[in-house]
Design brief:
mainly alpha, Helix Hairpins
């Protein structure tokens, strides 16, 4: 691969607040310099950085959910740094460069939006554009020798999100329950199997049955038009908010959860719920 990366810049670029993306690329180059860079940054590789990439993406989503636009600015910068980091390592290994990454995504966006950048009409519904998008993605997968229905669904996705994507792919070729009631029947079946597993089977078998139940629950969300990942994030936020309400009420009594018991905390939980409903 030809080296079309940004050439090294003078040292003052690192300290130029208006240096833009060139400044960030130069900072990363300096951090990864084997002779004068940061020892921690030099030691990193794709595998060690990947968890940070996932974490930063979730922190972006968290800032959006909280409508914290000032924090979102910083989180987007952290996420951009992850792209720059991976691109720097890709360049060092001879796989790709930052410029080739930019070129690839730009080419993809132009190719996938012929109604904007080409001669196709723009008067399409959102559903039609989604179908066109999926058709083009399928053609791209075919070009990469990804022939199977489930090929290309990233293994590294969060499990709940990957479950929905796998189910969507299978549904496109007719492998799906036609009615929501059939999904509910399957949930009851899997829940019964989990109870049986808990009583009679090994720890590994219990885990397997629990996974089956989670998978079907994701399918129920898909049939209901609910994003399971978003729904669970909202449930997590609600639990956090209400438990913090319990702690606040206990603090008013001069207590902490460790000083309380389940009966008291459950009563306070109900009080928090009632308070939320009355102020909502």
């Amino acid at each position: 691969m030809a080296d079309d990366s940004i050439p090294e810049k003078p040292d003052n670029l690192v300290h130029d607040p208006d240096g833009g993306i060139d400044r960030l690329l130069e900072i990363m180059r300096r951090l990864r310099d084997p002779d004068s860079g940061c020892p921690w940054d030099i030691e990193q590789d794709f595998d060690s950085i990947a968890p940070y990439t996932i974490e930063e993406a979730y922190e972006v989503a968290d800032a959006i959910a909280r409508r914290d636009w000032a924090e979102l600015e910083g989180e987007l910068g952290d996420l951009l740094l992850q792209t720059v980091y991976h691109a720097a390592m890709g360049q060092e290994a001879g796989h790709f460069t930052f410029q080739s990454v930019v070129r690839a995504i730009s080419d993809k966006m132009v190719a996938r939006h012929p109604h904007v950048f080409g001669d196709e009409p723009r008067d399409k519904s959102a559903d039609q554009q989604t179908r066109d998008w999926e058709r083009m993605k399928a053609a791209e997968r075919a070009g990469k020798a990804q022939r199977g229905t489930l090929d290309g669904v990233a293994i590294g996705l969060p499990a709940l999100l990957r479950a929905v994507k796998l189910q969507n792919r299978a549904a496109r070729v007719g492998f799906d329950w036609p009615e929501t009631v059939q999904v509910l029947d399957k949930i009851r079946e899997e829940a019964a199997e989990l109870v049986e597993a808990r009583a009679h089977l090994s720890e590994a078998e219990v885990e397997e049955e629990f996974g089956d139940l989670m998978f079907v629950m994701a399918n129920l969300g898909r049939h209901l038009g609910v994003d399971p990942e978003a729904a669970l994030r909202a449930a997590n936020a609600k639990f956090t908010r209400r438990f913090e309400g319990i702690e606040a009420r206990l603090a008013d009594r001069g207590k902490t959860p460790k000083d309380s018991d389940l009966a008291e905390m459950d009563a306070l939980w109900n009080a928090v719920k009632i308070s939320e409903r009355s102020t909502g």
